[in-house]
Amino acid sequence: MAMAIKLSILLLFFLSSLIPTSFSLYEDQVGFMDWHQRYIGKVKHAVFHTQKAGRKRVVVSTEENVIASLDLRRGEIFWRHVLGSNDVVDKIDIALGKYVITLSSEGSILRAWNLPDGQMVWESFLSGSKSSKALLTVPANLKVDLDSPIFVYGGACLYAISSIDGEILWKKDFTTEGIDVHQLLLSDGSDVVHVVGVTDSSQFDTYDIDVRNGGLLKHASASFPGGIYGEILPISSDKFVALDASRSLLVLISIKDGQINLQQTQVSDLIHEASGNTAIIPSKLSGIFSISTDTFIAFIKVTNEGKLDVMEKVDKMVVVSDALPLSEGEQAFALVQHGDSKIHLSVRLVHDMSSNHLKETVKMDHDRGFVHKIFINNYVRTDRSHGFRALIVMEDHSLLLLQQGEIVWSREDGLASIIDVTTSELPVEKLGVSVSKVEHSLFEWLKGHMLKLKGTLMLATPDEIAEIQKIRLQSSEKSKMTRDHNGFRRLLIVLTRAGKLFALHTGDGRVVWSSLLQSLRKSDQCTHPTGLKLHQWQIPHHHALDNNPSVLVVGRCGPSLSASSAMSIVDAYTGKELHNMGPLHSTVQVISLPFSDSTEQQLHLLIDADKRAHLYPRTPEAAEIFQRESENVYWYSVEAEVGILRGYGVKSSCNLEVPDEYCFETRNLWSIVFPSESEKIIATVTRKANEVVHTQAKVIAEEDVMYKYISKNILFVATVSPKASGPIGSATPDESLLVVHLVDTVTGRILHRMSHSGAQGPVHAVLSENWVVYHYFNLRAHRYEISVIEIYDQSRAENKDVLKLIVGKHNLTAPVSSYSRPEVSTKSQSYFFTHSVKAISVTSTAKGITSKHLLIGTIGDKVLALDKRFVDPRRSLNPTQAEKEEGLLPLTDTLPIIPQSYVTHAFKVEGLRGIETVPAKLESTTLVFAYGVDLFFTRLAPSRTYDSLTEDFNYALLLLTIVALVVAIFVTWVLSERKDLQDKWR
């Protein structure tokens, strides 16, 4: 028996060594509970690099301020750089065949990046005297003293910059001329830079500048009394075309022998069907320009004699590319049109538009919308003829490469511009239905278990570790399209800036469905659609399987608050648009009410620009519910521009010419005015509506009890002095003042107010339960700080008598009313923090029992999990023994940053904008979704997984261990019995 016990202990010790005890992840666990996706955003500039041997690539810049090099074969990212939100990319090009040149920040920053690996070679700062249009010209075959200059116009100055090291060779200031430069031209083989623009919109000017020293060689001007609309478009090196301010005259500008000749032509004489909405399309074609009208696009040729001939008219939805040089004096361009689920692509020669050099039809998903931009590139086929590839930017911001009538690859880069996120449960798995079944042969089964055993014993090679991870992903149930009992599998429904909805599976991040909403597409009624908000619309009970959950999308048809709005209701399981409405009244605020009708549709209020409240769904049942509960419906508005907070309630039905029983007038209940000369609102934060608080009581040291002030109506408001409202350093410490307020949004009472002298924003904050944590910059200490405020209810502090609790003579269960003036007390503390912050969130769990962690999006685009105990306001330098037993940490002036606490591991969420947390059904776990240009999802257990085994727990090994123990016990028992028998016979 002793041998059996020893063997059992050894096996148990071996088993316990296999159970991970660290909070951090092993190398082969990354990707098992999380996923990371990289995007670039909507492409606005593209330059192909397909010369010579090596990798074929296209360099792009996007609306998300991303510069990236993409593989032309597969669309993968070779390298990528995400610039700051204020560093907008103006132009890109390739110099010397090896440098990517980017001009950004309104022509004030010029950079060169190494083409193969994306490393920055040099950077030049161009300080202009005033803001102006940014222009970039990279000559193809120009060398001035071997410096290979690049010509840049920005800040009303013209620069010649060496492409070798970024040194400024010369500078020409145009501030005194007062010219608004439109074009910067340099002909092949010429040593003159042509600067073309207008002065006060009434005079056309051209300057000839010597490329060697920046000297002025020639200046010519001509009066242009009507002014111009849009930009001056070059037709050739000496011909330009523009529209007058009334958009009724076409002006052809010819330069010959230093003299400027203006030739005016009525648009109606040239194009009889043209209307007043005529515009010149900025596509650069040699000797040809195109004009768009309300119904079509016309191509007009400029002859050598200066005559204008209409060559062809095409549909208005056609997109035109820039000219692509094929050979000496020959150019091609592309026309693309989106038809019925098809793209019609044709490539034509500039000098022979009558025939199609290439014509292809490609099948296209209608959910991608219309074509927005096209960039073309050519290659030489085996028969020495020209082939073409087209890079297409779609309405939903996706990117596609077309070649030989097929879609070579596509990228869903609309996911780089997420503006709102919600979640949806997956369907319930029906009994007897197997959603996914993976069959393996015996050899594959044995091979998999041998690999797992080698990984457990840490004997696996890197390739075997990757194979183990692949097997785990395939064998796990995380990618099923049904609910799991832990609540890990869900749908993340995201709304992008393009007005497209995506449903992402939390298991592996794949796109389950996508839908380009009709209500948020550009039309005659909705000219500039933008997404506004995403809300849960219908959440049916899990037993009611006949109805799918649905979401509500509210958009706006213009940039102003008074623009009309549009609505869509979308099935959360299929992405089908069930209903859309628009254009409707304006919408400045969307409020989800805590009421639902018999079909479990949630009631919503849409507040318009006239402060009227519109009820949805527009049904008699919803109106009856709302009118019954209207006395308890309150909301607030924040007018940050004028520094006013207002609280509202429902007054009566709207008094309109056409009666509307679902429209309600509002009454102004309270207002808080922050004096504009002393305070400016820079941040407001409120609690999540679905947050669960486990208990109101908080037991502190020495068995004392404090009661949290729990209210869903608390609003955190941060204001700064006007001089400190700019970027950090815009004001001195004596001029800076940060004031934070906790406001009750029902009564307008300021529950607490705190000042931070010498501090300024930006302020990022999160409000949860009875506490708020906010981040700001301390000018006096030259460091970032994080402060915490906890608010407690003093009116319940005296209810500690056990006898009163027994007989029920206490007010702990009495209803809390926002009308009564609360007796509150606060505790606060401030700590230094190392990093700047982009976003702050907090973990949320199903019952609110698990301890909280702050999720901090750092300036390095990572997400840090910080235990809430580190920002406890009760921390002291020398905590008592009772406080130590409570878990109170000793006070330090700086918050620690533990490398293992980064939720994103080694990944970066480039361009991080937001962090969403969703409670799982398992109390210990919260789901975390961080989004920006990249997407990242993971599961987080702030207090460890105390209520479950980990998903990678080796049940097979446990079973083998139990069997081995039973066999060992039986064998040793038999041997022991035999030995005892032999001893007795002696």
TrEMBL record:
Domain ER membrane protein complex subunit 1 C-terminal positions: 768-985
GO cellular component, one term: EMC complex
Compartments (UniProt record): Endoplasmic reticulum membrane
Keyword terms: Endoplasmic reticulum, Glycoprotein, Membrane, Signal, Transmembrane, Transmembrane helix
Coiled-coil ranges per UniProt: none
Transmembrane region(s): 953-976
Signal peptide coordinates: 1-24
Pfam families linked to this entry: Beta-prop_EMC1_N, EMC1_C
Subunit organization: Component of the ER membrane protein complex (EMC).
Name listed for the protein in its UniProt record: ER membrane protein complex subunit 1
Source organism of the structure: Centaurea solstitialis
